[in-house]
């Protein structure tokens, strides 16, 4: 099952982000959290995810997610304990990759994936997850509140 097959004919953004996080959870090894934070009211707010309960609000510029959101650049962190200002929503997370979601140059949110393993993510993950995000942006119709 591919992401495009799941979302290309589904107009509901919530259903699509939910299925996207479930797909990542099913097919990625050594992860303990996969999901979305959405940009609302000048902060990131927890969206659809798979994994343990998570932080509900993240300020822009704070932690790995807030840094990705503020810079609109993917953050690949081999050891989150060495990342300045890391927010430990789950103390078992050791590495993380966060891909910003932008429509045009406007922040919509971030895709956040955590792993209990140090150095879990690499440039291959970055490439494929950024392609994954491109498909989401192509097919998902985000509400105006997020754009």
What report would you give on this structure?
The structure is a single chain. The protein is α+β, with helices and mostly antiparallel strands. Helices cover 31% and strands 29% of the residues. It has four helices and six strands, in the order H-H-E-E-E-H-E-E-E-H. It is globular. 34% of the residues are buried.
Topology of this protein?
Blueprint: H1 3-7, H2 13-27, E1 33-40, E2 43-51, E3 57-59, H3 63-71, E4 75-77, E5 95-103, E6 106-115, H4 123-139
Antiparallel strand pairs: 1-2, 1-6, 2-3, 4-5, 5-6
Distinctive features:
6-stranded antiparallel beta sheet; 147 residues; 4 helices; alpha+beta; 29% strand
Can you give me a brief rundown of this structure?
With 147 residues, the protein is an alpha+beta fold.
Question: Which parts are unreliable, with pLDDT below 50 for 5 consecutive residues or more?
Answer: none
Q: Measured on Cα atoms, how large is the radius of gyration?
A: 14 Å
State the share of residues found in helices, binned by percent: 25-40%
**Coarse shape:** globular
Class by helix and strand content? alpha+beta
Query: Could you give a short account of the major beta sheet?
Result: 6 strands, antiparallel
Share in β-strands: 25-35%
Order of helices and strands: HHEEEHEEEH
